[in-house]
Amino acid sequence: MKLVAVVVNAAPVANENSDGIPTRVSYLSSCGSLRGDVTVVEGELASALIAIRENIGDDALLATRGPLDLRCIVHPQAAREEFTPSAPFLRYIDASRLSGKPFKSPSDDNSALLTDICSILTQYSPDKIGSLVEDIRVGFDAAVCVDSCSLSDEVMCRARGLPWQATDAHVAHFFAGLNIAEGGIALCLSAEGRRNGEALIRFENNTQRELALRRHRHFLLSRYIEVYRATAEDFLAVAAGSSSEAVDFVSRRAAMIVRMRGLPFDCTEDQIRSFFAEVDAPVVNEGGVLFVNRPDGRPTGDAFVLFEKEEQGMNALKRHRHTIGSRYVELFRSSQAEVQQVVKRSGDVSGGVGGGAGRRDCIRLRGLPYEARVEHVVEFLGVHSSQIAPQGVHMVFNSQGHPSGEAFIQMTSEGASAAVAASAHNKFMTIGKKQRYIEVFQCSPDEMNLMVAAPPRPPAPMQPTPPSAAAPLILPPHPRIFPGLGVPFGMPQYWPYPSPPVSPNMLLNTGGQILVTGLGIHVTPADIVAHFSANPDTLVESVEMVRWATATTPGEALVRIRSTRDPVPPPMSLSTGLPQLPLPFPLIHT
User: Start and end of every RRM domain (predicted)?
Assistant: First the structure.
């Protein structure tokens, strides 16, 4: 066994939150005999490691004064410079574990320090030294985690402040040099199903976890990351899954998982395979598509797809925002933990008001006049009002306490709700001189709870609207619509579980809503998306057809948009990112 004592000097860099850049690597290659000269290599890290490797060979065993030199200096800096250290820098022996006391810090002349390390090693047999060898794992290995796993709190930590576009690969990059357990990275989702900038990480042992805590407020993609201790319960709540279907899916051999959002509810597996075949991205043949359904079996519009090769998965992501049928589909890279988390959430929607995943004994009214009260809703239902459950009318208000134009009603049975939806849909409600036609849909208690039982989010501070936002498509201040970008949405954020996370090219600065009126009878959501997408600064997040056009009535649509610019608020003149011209003639009903 060829032992080589190594000491790494790190010079400070401009950013005090960073580890430091190695400028000098000193080593003593004849460590076992205490004879030989100390060699010092200076310069860029990559060239320094190559020079050392050529001198000592791949089979050498490095001896260090502790875990910091390799795990916290060499490997993190190599990750920043985008290269991967190879043997012999993937294993080492910590001489401080043999001496029982820490060594002194590196200096300009590390000869004495290297000699001290070697003198400790000469006191032990090769077998003893070999038993203390530690390996450094590069990258991250995915694995399935089930809720029956028994884990320790001593190996868990939580990373907070991750960029919204961060993946498990980014998290592994941030903790380069530390051994993350298989399947040990779980990105957290918010109550709305979006990645919330947090991740839970499980390391191989407590030593790795303690070293991870030292990276508190280090940087990833220009964002500083906070690192805290976590518990096994926290990790299992996010990473573990109890659905056998999800476990079977993530257990299949694949290089990449891609999540699809916004699928038509009648989308089939064959359509998905054809969708990706256009970019030479074949889906795994058997069990390569997993549709996410609600507890009552209805689709959510989400699906996960497996690809055998990384290259195929990257090709698949090129189909982002292309259409299946009349729906544009969003794609982004996913992970095994996220699959299990989403599938688990889709089946764990809270019972709240009324509960019951399988029943569809509720109705949803949309398009109510803002003056509508409970008595108006009861009058609108006519003879069917006798089948409303006690205290079963729930008016929906936005985060500012104003009516949203929607209501949910609990009926006494599924048959009653179906009868109301069939007879009252698209009929008119008259209040004073106002007459509005009302859309009526049958729904489940779970869907109602997502809107009614969940407390509204507190609104963000209002921002002034720039003069340039006063375009023909921007409404004046209104209980439902707020002008401009960078302001809170007036309507409740309604996303059926599992609601969509962030698209790969989407930066989560605050968006805005536009009500488009006067739509022609042939206008589809795809036409509206195409119109707004002509502006490179604007990203359409969703289109909701408030009213479809008929031969006598123009259509209306709510468009949710976001700016593609940096999340840092841009100058006021650029803060809208909206088209400043009227819609083209074909979109206007005449």
Answer: 256-336
Listed in sequence order, the DSSP H helices in 426-546 are: 445-452, 525-533
Q: Tell me which CATH code domain 153-239 carries.
A: 3.30.70.330
The tokens for 238 are 């996010």
Report which residue type is found at 372: A
* Cβ atoms 105, 10 nearer than 8 A: no
Say if CB 174 and CB 75 are below 8 A apart. no
CA 335 remoteness from chain centre: 10
Distances (CA, A) of 320 to 131, 164, 315, 447: 50, 17, 10, 28
CA dist 561 → 389, 486, 498, 542, 579 (Å):
38, 11, 21, 7, 11
Residue range 48-82, pLDDT digits in tens: 888 888 888 888 899 898 998 899 989 998 888 88
pLDDT 10s digits, 241-259? 767 888 889 888 888 999 9
| Under 8 Å between Cβ of 345 and 193 | yes
The kind and range of the H/E element at 174 are: helix 168-174
Which fold would CATH assign to domain 362-452? Answer: Alpha-Beta Plaits (3.30.70)
CA 171 to chain centre: 12
Residue 468 pLDDT class (50, 70, 90 cuts):
very low
Q: Say what the pTM is.
A: 0.58
With contact defined as beta carbons under 8 Å apart, do 477 and 387 qualify?
no
**Homologous superfamily of the 3-135 domain (CATH):** Ribonuclease H-like superfamily/Ribonuclease H (3.30.420.10)
362-452 shares the fold of 3-135: no
User: What residues contact residue 235 under an 8 Å CB cut-off, 6+ apart?
Assistant: 151, 156, 186, 200, 202
What DSSP element (H or E) covers 334? strand 327-334
Task: Return the structure tokens found at 207.
Answer: 């030593």
Q: What is the Cα–Cα distance from 532 to 516, expressed in whole angstroms?
A: 11
CA distance 224 to 174: 11
